[in-house]
Amino acid sequence: MSTSTQEAAEQQDWMNGGDEGAAAVASPRAPSSRYKGVVPQPNGRWGAQIYERHARVWLGTFADEAAAARAYDVAALRFRGRGGAVNFPGAATAAAAAEMAFLAALPKSEVVDMLRKHTYDDELRQALRSAAAAGGRGGGDRATAMVPRRVALFEKAVTPSDVGRLNRLVVPKLQAEKHFPALEEAAPPPVLLAFEDAAGGGKVWRFRYSYWSSSQSYVLTRGWSRFVREKGLAAGDTVAFSQAAAAAASGIDAGEVGVKRRMFIECRKRKRKGSSDSGIPGDGCCPGGGARVVRLFGANIAAAAAIGASCVC
Q1: Higher pLDDT, 302 or 162
Q2: Which of 37, 156, 258, 262 falls 20 to 30 Å from 149 in CA-CA distance?
Q3: What is the pTM of this model?
Q4: How does DSSP classify residue 309?
């Protein structure tokens, strides 16, 4: 399958919900639910769906009817705002401004991914915690404790195709299989990965993580182009991945984070030609005192050289 065909398939999968959504359409009609956007499933579970421009968007299946109704309400708030019809008007009216801001900052496709994978509540709690920590950084030790010590996982120097129009980052196979969730090579379903911005501010970046059998490569797709654009990445810059050294920092309720990993992402800009402020031709130091790094095939090597040097600021 070509890359363009794969991307088209992913877009169609987002709308239809893959095999799960297709099965819901093909199943015999069962007694309708009392909730808007909720459909019963043959296996006794409940599905949720919403329509966008006359096209059905599958939101996933849930163990009980109320949970499916809640998923529909979340989608309705993102797709149609506070004025949209929901199943629980009281809860929607009382929705905090922070949750509405959280939804507004996400593409619709990412909200749908969270609902399908039942990670929306966890992602919302994490975003609210990060925002609270960012707002109180100068006010005590608790905010400082919520920023954990990080352990480096791996880094990659991005290529022209990584920052081009393909909207994907190719993750080195060795690192993907070592640090990211396992994916089956035979038509694996994509996984949504969340990374906190190591620069702080409470921002969380979400990327769709997939395995492309056509090129036998692991890739971060949906959400990647936004990261490239907002960070101003160019070929030769470095993207670094890390994770919290501890499962949870002090001050967080026990069991709320549990064994859930907190992963981080940051970028380091390659020194641009003529950007040195030192006045010394070929000087490889950043204006802020960064270190010189030499890359060979995307990996750091110890020797320092003018060609290929980058600034780590």
Answers
A1: 162
A2: 156
A3: 0.49
A4: E
